[in-house]
Write a structure and sequence with these properties.
The structure holds two protein chains of two kinds. By secondary structure, chain A is an alpha/beta fold. Chain A has one domain: 3-Layer(aba) Sandwich (Rossmann fold), CATH 3.40.50.2300. In chain A, strands 2-1-3-4-5 form a five-stranded parallel sheet, with helices on both faces. In chain B, 49% of the residues lie in helices and 22% in strands. In chain B, strands 11, 12, 13, 14, 15, 16 and 17 form a seven-stranded mixed sheet that branches. By secondary structure, chain B is of the alpha+beta class. In chain B, α11 runs antiparallel to α12. Chain B is elongated. Chain B is built from 16 helices and 17 strands. The chains are: A alpha/beta, B alpha+beta. At the A-B interface, α1, α4 and α5 of A face α11, α12 and α16 of B.
Chain lengths: 130, 568
């Protein structure tokens, strides 16, 4: 079973990026690369080669869903799983993201002390289901 | 000479007799001929012919007078008979047709016909001696009663005629066409009143029906009436006919399934099921129709021929949907704008608390706790308002999956332990059974139990215990949360689940909260076909509970389900 090491985090909010970075690196001991937009993510992803995408849903210009669809079109990125983070608490939207293939949807505000274990358990579940 | 005189006498006598006979025949017919003939044979030998003739004439006249009188009497009696018969028949006809009552001048009822008794549902001895006030409904305040109106008219020797409402002994309302005639004796004294009424209720109802039907036709909503068995249409209002481009005649050859291209009879039958077992009086569905969003409200009625019918009212809600959508959109944006900074604030505080950003001095840690608690509170308010808006817009989604209640209650006590610790209140779970399952949205149900648990904590005394109990009530599982708080007075029961209401506490201490927790919990429980309620004794404590329908322990064949359950 592949181990989760590298996460590409995309969020347009600077402060949330700071909190998430600390939660994943300091608390979760993961390797994190961050971008403030979907366009940046498309540039960085092929070089960084993350194990998982952590994407904010509501971003200007290119939203989380669209960013993921474009990321999946990059050769070698087709099977990289995605977890979405959203501050929009609409149940239907969450369901739709799972339908699209997201392995988890984490609602904001998230608990930085729990973020890593939430991500890891979704990762493990995904690895087990093949 | 004598001979000639005698011959003359005979001639005159014969002539007289002939005239008499003629009269006799005229007046008496065959009988007087016989009398005349006998008179003639009797007297012809002894009396002089002139005398006999005179006698004949006299007799004839007598017979004539006698028979004329007899004839007049006979004629008179015939006419009288006819009149009596006519009156009798008129009376019978009137009695059969009308409701007749006769009163004295003070309106005391002297006699009534059978129709009166039948119509107003009284026995004869119940009504005799009463006044007509009995059948007149009490007038609206300020209005002159019809009873008084009639009373005044007949007092002034006027005939009263008009329509009035009447009530029967059992309280049925009828419409009466009525004429009241005052009767006077030869000296002009008012002695009686005769009232004749006709029941025109049917006519009035038919008129009202026509009126209602024409109003139904002009309604903006579409109205359909159709048979429950074969769904055959018996009525569609104009609005409905116009949309389908049918005539009423054509519509009566169609079934309700023909009124929409996406009508699914199986789904419809399932939808109306609660109408038959008395669970609901009406069922409502929102659906995308051929021409946009519609809301369809269906009821079950028993028609005039004891035939059960569905009545569906279809309302175009495209505009309302648009408003709802725009509203939800703005709520969603506001929610996003509030949650995003809250994410950073809460995240930062949690990291500070945990020491991930460096260990804090005890004084600083206490201040960070205050900030964390209040950011949590702010988040709760935002979430409650958002949920409340979702409920109002009908947008709260309930995603049901099997929920194992033992795990659910354990998770709830774990989740709320922090809040309990803060208030020095502990949770105890009792009655836990392993084989207890319901079908529900575990996140939403967690919201319900957390609300009840945090309320219980809020109202518990220091070092108190909140008991979470699971109980089998037959077809449902009851989850209750009990505290030893001040209790809730009965007067607060009615508004307990109303929005933005926080009842005045018996102990005078105001607790923090939005006043939305219980109404949201109620909505969630009801969306699970369950019920929520409470029992309380002032000074002893309160027990809030919710009940959810049982399901069999689920076979988790579907790995997706298993993954979901594991995630929960």
């Amino acid at each position: 079973m592949a181990e989760l090491q590298k996460i590409l985090h995309v969020d347009d909010d600077d402060d949330i990026r700071i909190i998430a970075k600390m939660a994943l690196e300091v608390v979760g001991n993961l390797n994190v690369e961050q971008c403030s937009s979907g366009m940046d993510a498309l540039e960085i992803a092929p070089q960084y080669k993350p194990d998982l995408f952590l994407l904010d849903v509501m971003m200007p210009v290119m939203g989380g869903e669209e960013t993921w669809q474009k990321l999946r079109n990059i050769p070698g990125m087709e099977n990289v799983p995605a977890i979405f983070m959203t501050a929009k608490a609409q149940d239907a939207a969450t369901g739709a993201l799972i339908e699209l293939g997201a392995i988890a949807v984490i609602t904001k505000p998230f608990d930085p002390m729990e973020l890593c274990s939430q991500i890891r358990s979704a990762w493990d579940r995904h690895q087990n289901s093949g | 000479m004598l001979q000639s005189i005698r011959r003359n006498q005979i001639a005159i006598g014969v002539l007289m007799l002939a005239i008499g006979v003629a009269f006799g025949i005229y007046s008496l017919g065959f009988g007087s001929v016989l009398v005349a003939a006998e008179t003639w044979s009797f007297y012809s030998g002894q009396l002089p012919i002139g005398t006999a003739a005179l006698l004949g004439l006299l007799l004839g006249s007598l017979v004539l007078a006698l028979t004329r009188r007899g004839k007049i009497a006979k004629l008179q009696s015939l006419v009288m008979d006819k009149q009596a018969r006519e009156i009798y028949f008129q009376d019978r006809a009137l009695n059969a047709h009308a409701i007749v009552s006769i009163t004295d001048p003070d309106s005391k009822i002297l006699s009534v016909n059978d129709n009166f008794l039948k119509t107003f549902e009284y026995e004869r001895d119940e009504i005799i001696g009463q006044t007509h006030e009995l059948i007149h409904p009490s007038p609206y305040s300020g209005a002159v009663s019809v009873f008084n109106d009639i009373f005044e008219a007949v007092k002034q020797n006027k005939v009263w005629s008009g329509e009035h409402k009447a009530i029967t002994k059992t309280g049925k309302t009828l419409f009466m066409q009525c004429t009241v005639v005052p009767l006077h004796d030869e000296d002009g004294n008012h002695v009686k009143n005769v009232s004749m009424r006709t029941d025109v209720t049917e006519t009035r109802l038919a008129e009202a029906d026509r009126y209602l039907t024409s109003m139904l036709d002009k309604l903006q909503d579409e109205v359909y009436i159709y048979n429950t068995d074969d769904l055959r249409i018996s009525y569609m209002n104009e609005t409905a006919l116009n949309r389908c481009e049918w005539t009423l005649k054509l519509a009566r050859t169609k079934r309700i399934t023909h009124t929409a291209s996406n009508f699914e009879e199986g789904l419809f039958r399932k939808h109306v099921e609660p109408l038959f077992n008395g669970e609901k009086e009406s069922v409502v569905i929102e659906t995308l129709h051929d021409k946009g969003f519609v809301e369809i409200n269906t009821r079950l009625y028993v028609g005039p021929d004891d035939v059960p019918v569905f009545v569906s009212v279809l309302r175009d809600i495209t505009e309302r949907k648009e408003v709802d959508r725009a509203r939800m959109e703005s709520v969603s944006v506001v929610s996003h704008e509030l949650r995003t900074p809250l994410t950073s604030i809460k995240g930062a505080l949690r990291l500070l608390q945990s020491g991930a950003a460096g260990v804090l001095e005890p004084g600083a840690a206490a201040i960070v706790d205050v900030a964390d608690r209040n950011s949590e509170r702010l988040l709760k308010v935002v979430n409650d308002i958002l949920d409340f808006e979702k409920i109002r817009a009908g947008k709260m989604d309930i995603n049901k999956r099997p929920v194992k209640l033992s795990d659910f209650i354990m998770d709830a006590t774990t989740m709320n332990k922090g809040y309990g610790d803060e208030h020095q209140v502990k949770f105890v779970a009792t009655g836990i059974e392993n084989d207890a399952f319901v079908s529900g949205d575990s996140d939403r149900l967690m919201q319900v139990i957390s609300n009840l648990m945090s309320n219980a904590v809020k109202y518990s005394p220091k070092n108190g215990t909140v008991v979470v109990n699971l109980k089998d009530t037959g077809r449902k599982w009851r989850i209750s949360v009990s505290d030893n708080g001040p209790g809730i007075p009965e007067s607060a029961r009615a508004s307990m689940f109303d929005s933005f209401v926080q009842s005045d506490p018996v102990d005078g201490i105001i607790r923090k909260g939005t006043g939305l927790g219980l109404p949201i919990a109620k909505e969630i429980v009801e969306r699970h076909a369950g019920k929520i309620d409470f029992e309380s004794t002032v000074g002893e404590g309160s027990t809030f509970y919710f009940e959810l329908p049982k399901i069999e322990s689920p076979e988790l064949e579907n790995p997706k389900d298993r993954a979901q359950l594991a995630a929960e």
